Amino acid sequence: METAREDILSLMNEYCYRIDRGDLQGFADLFSQGTWRVQGDPSGGDTGSAEVMETLKNIILYDGKPNTKHVMSNVQISVDPGGKTATAQCYITVNQAVPPDFPLQPIFIGHYYDRFSCVDGAWHFTFRDISPDLAGDLSHHRADF
After folding, report:
1. Contact yes or no for 113/5 (Cβ under 8 A)
2. Which sequence spans correspond to the domains of the chain?
3. Nearest to 52 by CA among 17, 28, 33
4. Closest by alpha carbon to 5, among 74, 86, 81, 82?
């Protein structure tokens, strides 16, 4: 079970790393077998890489990066006794800076609720539900804000 928890934590971290370095396709690919949803989204979220990638077109990039850092905290991972499914939750704080016009600041604080499954020894997201608890100025992060 400990290896499963480590693999799942690595996957959760990879989510943050990919978006922060501007690897939008790599980020979308994390949901090739899953759904990514922000609570309150009337569409119900995006399922599969292509749908997630379509939503990511609203991310503003600066020299190929969104100038963000996603920081997870209070991570809890629970692996099903059979070792094939798991759930997790954590807090998320997204910081952004776009010098010189937009100083470093938190732009989003929320809660991730995740479900995972293991297929052929590899863990993947089946669902990420994002609770947008506190939102700051997202105008430098998303073109649709």
Report:
1. no
2. 2-135
3. 28
4. 86
Encode pLDDT of 11-51 as tens digits.
Answer: 999 999 999 999 999 999 999 999 999 999 888 899 999 99
| CATH code of domain 2-135 | 3.10.450.50
- SS3 letters across 58-96: CECCECCECCEEEEEEEEEEEECCCCCEEEEEEEEEEEE
CA 135 to chain CA centroid, nearest Å:
16
What is the three-class DSSP state of 18?
A: helix
Model pTM above 0.90: yes
Distances (CA, A) of 136 to 26, 114, 128, 139: 26, 23, 21, 9
Query: Tokens for 139?
Result: 């105008």
Within 13 Å of residue 136, how many CA atoms lie on the same side as its CB?
Answer: 15
